Every structure is written in structure tokens, then in C-alpha cells.
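C-alpha cells for chain A. Residues wanted.
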């Protein structure tokens, strides 16, 4: 089944070529021109990826991103912006977005980034289920995480980081490996992004009562520690 991509962009001149390009790539593409319509759309229709402009006429794109995550949206979010200097600031923020692209961008670049992001979100080759049914349970195929039977809402990046840690339970996973596997090679951000994601993941796991802990191993990486018997 085709993956669904929602384009959130108020400028037709930008939206049209983008939609056409993505359709040609075989995605099921929808387009909305306001933040509210975007939130309504992702709440109503399962969507793999949202391409989100920051400068929308009603709700600021960052706020749209935040509200979508709060409402439990777990697909990918790629933020695009033309605001001068905005991208550097936005990348370090805890926005819940998975990737960032600055305008103007080439359609070939967009295609490559979309493909890379969707590939990452699918975590290819990890189709089995990991976890302890009484505690943390990661359903890799469905991209869902449960703590004692209750679903924990994670962003795409949080899920990717957690599924790697769970697959390597009680072993250290290096920062370099997490950066390479979860963010693509041409990701230009610092590993601060990784720390932000880990911090958010810890909060969510703790909030859900998960006994296992994500422990930082100084200078090396992170380890998911089992609950002591
Ligand atoms: Ca705009």
C-alpha cells in the first residue's frame, strides 16, 4: 500500500510542484494550506509523513508540530522553512520533528530526504517484536511501544532510538551508531539532537512507569538497563 504524505503549505507555487513530484514517486499525497486543516487531517487519516511549512496563515508550524505530537501523531514530520536564520534555532529545539529542510530546496533533494526519512521510520530488517510482556514491549512492525499493556506515544526518532536500544538490551550502543542509524549521514546537526531525543524518551518511559532505564555511558553512548531481578 502506498505511504501517505501530507503537504502543509500555504503557497500554491511551492505546494504544486512538491505534490506532483511526490505523486510521481508513488506516494499517496494530500495537501492542506493551514495548520488547523493539517491537525484535522492527521487526526482523521493514518499518515506516514507530514511535510510542514513553518510560516502558515493560522497556526505557526512549530505549534502545529507540537500539537500533532501531543495528540499522539507518531508518523514522520519534516519541517521546511524559508525564515532566514530560523533553521539553526529550530533544529536545537524540542519540536518533535524528525528532519528539517531549508527553502529554497531542489525537488531532487526533497525526494531523497523523504525517501531517507520514510526508510528510517520503517526500521527495515527489524520486523520481530522485542521486549518483556510484563514491562516494556516494542512492536517493531507496528511501530508501537507499550508499558505494561498501555501504549506510550513516541515520535519517530524516539521510537527509532528506543528500538535500537531494546535490540541491544544491556549493551552499550555508541552515539555514532545511533546518529548514523537514526539520523542520516548528511544530517548536519550536532549530537545535541540525540541528547534531546534521549532526554524526552527517558521522561516518557519514566512517566509510563517503565522500570528499565536508558543510562548514559560517558564518552561512549547509551545502554538500556534491565530491571534488576
Ligand atoms: Ca508559508
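Reply:
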Amino acid at each position: 500500500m502506498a505511504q501517505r504524505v501530507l503537504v502543509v503549505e500555504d503557497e500554491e507555487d511551492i505546494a504544486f510542484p512538491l505534490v506532483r513530484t511526490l505523486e510521481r514517486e508513488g506516494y499517496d499525497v494530500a495537501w492542506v494550506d493551514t495548520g488547523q486543516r493539517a491537525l484535522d487531517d492527521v487526526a482523521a487519516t493514518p499518515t506516514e509523513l507530514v511535510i510542514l511549512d513553518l510560516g502558515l496563515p493560522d497556526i505557526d508550524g512549530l505549534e502545529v508540530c507540537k500539537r500533532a505530537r501531543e495528540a499522539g501523531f507518531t508518523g514522520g514530520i519534516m519541517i521546511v522553512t524559508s525564515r532566514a536564520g530560523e533553521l539553526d534555532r529550530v533544529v536545537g529545539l524540542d519540536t518533535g520533528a524528525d528532519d528539517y529542510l531549508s527553502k529554497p530546496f531542489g525537488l531532487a533533494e526533497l525526494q531523497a530526504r523523504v525517501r531517507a526519512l520514510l526508510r528510517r521510520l520503517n526500521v527495515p530488517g527489524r520486523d520481530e517484536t522485542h521486549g518483556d510482556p510484563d514491562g516494556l514491549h516494542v512492536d517493531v512492525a507496528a511501530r508501537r511501544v507499550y508499558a505494561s499493556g498501555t501504549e506510550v506515544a513516541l515520535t519517530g526518532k524516539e521510537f527509532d532510538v528506543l528500538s535500537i536500544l531494546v535490540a541491544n538490551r544491556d549493551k552499550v550502543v555508541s552515539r555514532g551508531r545511533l546518529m548514523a542509524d537514526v539520523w542520516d549521514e548528511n544530517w548536519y546537526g550536532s549530537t545535541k539532537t540525540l541528547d534531546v531525543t534521549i532526554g524526552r524518551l527517558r521522561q516518557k518511559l519514566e512517566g509510563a512507569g517503565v522500570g528499565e532505564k536508558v543510562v548514559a555511558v560517558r564518552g561512549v553512548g547509551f545502554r538500556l538497563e534491565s530491571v534488576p531481578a
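The longest strand covers residues 76-81. The first helix runs from residue 12 to 24.
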